[in-house]
Specification:
Number of domains: 1
Shape: elongated
Largest sheet: 3 strands, antiparallel
Number of strands: 5
Strand content: 5-15%
Radius of gyration: 26 Å
Helix content: 55-70%
Low-confidence stretches: 19-27
Distance between the termini: 37 Å
């Protein structure tokens, strides 16, 4: 019986000694909207995908951000297609070839279609950020608070990891 206690004391001592640093992630920092186009959290610029990842902790904000990201993705596809059509035609004209001006019209039409999509992205992303930021001031309820405690290998070695 004494050997069991001795083993437990040694094991706990080894665990405590291996925990030389404590690493934590703070996902509850506010997101700021700068210059009517840039989202920042902790001085890091967030794109649509990063905003989607950050808002995962709030289901309502995440739902709104998914709509915003869909608008952003579709706008990128349309603008790339329109830009290629316009650029190809202008490149052909500059190079001395026979340009197909209909492609410029189609490409311009695609670029015009991106305007409401970008506007929708901005609106939904702003709503998602507002919802996310407003939820930071409220303490989480026990119904949506999930805490997981793991012991094992971490990026800093052996340690204790708390996820919430």
């Amino acid at each position: 019986m004494n050997k069991t206690y001795l083993f437990l004391i040694i094991a706990i001592g080894v665990i405590i000694l291996s925990l030389n640093t404590v690493s934590a992630q703070n996902q509850t920092d506010s997101i700021f909207f700068e210059n009517n186009r840039i989202y920042k959290q902790n001085d890091v610029i967030l794109g649509p995908k990063q905003l989607l990842d950050v808002t995962k902790i709030n289901p309502e904000a995440y739902k709104e951000m998914k709509i915003a990201k869909s608008n952003s993705d579709f706008a990128m596809i349309l603008s790339a297609g329109g830009g290629i059509m316009i650029g190809w035609t202008l490149g052909t004209a500059i190079g001395g070839g026979e340009p197909q001006w209909a492609l410029v019209g189609i490409g311009s039409g695609l670029l015009v279609l991106t305007i409401p999509l970008i506007s929708g992205y901005k609106k939904h992303a702003k709503n998602a950020v507002d919802i996310y930021n407003s939820s930071l001031n409220k303490p989480p309820t026990t119904a949506n608070r999930k805490v997981k405690l793991d012991m094992g290998l971490t990026s800093n070695g052996f340690g204790l990891v708390m996820k919430f």
